Amino acid sequence: MTLDLPRRGFLMLLMALGLTQGDPTKPSRGPLVTCTCEGPHCRGPTCQGAWCTVVLVREEGQQPQQHRGCGSLHEELCRGRPTEFVNHYCCYRPLCNHNVSLALEATQIPPEQPKVDGQLPLILGPVLALLALVALGALGLWHVRRRQEKQRGLHSELGESSLILKASEQGDSMLGDLLDSDCTTGSGSGLPFLVQRTVARQVALVECVGKGRYGEVWRGLWHGESVAVKIFSSRDEQSWFRETEIYNTVLLRHDNILGFIASDMTSRNSSTQLWLITHYHEHGSLYDFLQRQTLEPQLALRLAVSAACGLAHLHVEIFGTQGKPAIAHRDLKSRNVLVKSNLQCCLADLGLAVMHSQSSDYLDIGNNPRVGTKRYMAPEVLEEQIRTDCFESYKWTDIWAFGLVLWEIARRTIVNGIVEDYRPPFYDVVPNDPSFEDMKKVVCVDQQTPTIPNRLAADPVLSGLAQMMRECWYPNPSARLTALRIKKTLQKLSNGLEKPKVIH
């Protein structure tokens, strides 16, 4: 069975009725209710939403699967009729979906039923055809309205938020068509979960392009297009779950955030694998790129500005139906910044991210025992004095780490013919794999920051970059620059560099 109209319809229905957790950034008609949550995207036994749902769905040739969760959008879909593919139930009391069981409609008339009158099909045929046309028209109208709502969606004050992902920078593609279709969910940035699974199982792994403590990254092929497949190690299951959760519940389409395609838990070689499928960027991480490449000032600022744009988009909360909560990355480093083919950066790895919504004062820190990378930890984290109940605290640690990434870029920038080899931050004062204690002594006790190359002072633009680093490394977290201020300052520096010099 292909992805025909009924299939597309019930995929959208599944997302609208609560395959994912309730989204605290979405408006609801009344107080949130607590519901039983059982399904691939549940991070716990319960969730909160405007109502509780039970959804029973069957794919062609497979047993029906039942999911329980929370709904917050398209309440009218709760009143839809069950079919041979999907049945659903909505209720509005705490845990009212806990003991509900559903059944799918039969596809054939049971043999014990009496035979229908020979004229009945002749009468019912035109009636059913008319009903089908009405249903097609209603669904088509709904699609048009959704598309119009998307087009009217709120853009951020940053002016660079892209609500629809361009899957390829070189023209149209199957991936672009899929991600640009009405099959994307209104509440998140990903495809419906069942479509994600279909995509994941059509990907062929080609070559391993990276390994680490998290697992492996492979280049894969999907219908001739390269995609990146991050395969998480079993001990990092919470990071996979967190990234999947964030990408499916938050609008993250932005040129400088790694583009998400699909997530799946799949069985390969008699073992369970956790896959996250994203856009593929052949230059790899900024860490890899800086090892191979020296930079002219203009390219250095291009990398820095684009990374700052990504961080600013993460940090800002966007209000409205096309909005997003504020997000802090919590593991910002050059290995988690990718370099695109147009030599702009995009931020990756949201496995430790924290979300916050002002409207509900909701702070979601996830459930991941993993901590960030020690070399990039801010002093308040190393001293274990960070206020874990304050969202701003997490943003301030991102700024500290961003200053270190700027330092890595600056070392590889050519000024007056001079450039230094790539080195990680604090390379000269801690071991290759520093311990928590190593970093605490250097950053907190000795209060050291990386040495800024003197040659940057010879260039008025790059001396501005050096000053920015210092303002990212203030010991007092609240005194550090904001991501938006960093972005605007870097853009001004970049514009100054691009202006032609007038010779008198």
UniProtKB/TrEMBL annotation:
UniProt keyword Metal-binding present: yes
Membrane topology of the entry: Single-pass type I membrane protein
CDD domains: STKc_ACVR1_ALK1, TFP_LU_ECD_ALK1
Domain of life of the source: Eukaryota
Binding site for ATP: K230
Catalysed reaction equations from the record: L-threonyl-[receptor-protein] + ATP = O-phospho-L-threonyl-[receptor-protein] + ADP + H(+); L-seryl-[receptor-protein] + ATP = O-phospho-L-seryl-[receptor-protein] + ADP + H(+)
Function recorded in the entry: Type I receptor for TGF-beta family ligands BMP9/GDF2 and BMP10 and important regulator of normal blood vessel development. On ligand binding, forms a receptor complex consisting of two type II and two type I transmembrane serine/threonine kinases. Type II receptors phosphorylate and activate type I receptors which autophosphorylate, then bind and activate SMAD transcriptional regulators. May bind activin as well.
Family to which this protein belongs: Belongs to the protein kinase superfamily. TKL Ser/Thr protein kinase family. TGFB receptor subfamily.
Subunit comment: Interacts with TSC22D1/TSC-22.
Name of the protein this chain belongs to: Activin receptor type-1-like
Species: Leptonychotes weddellii
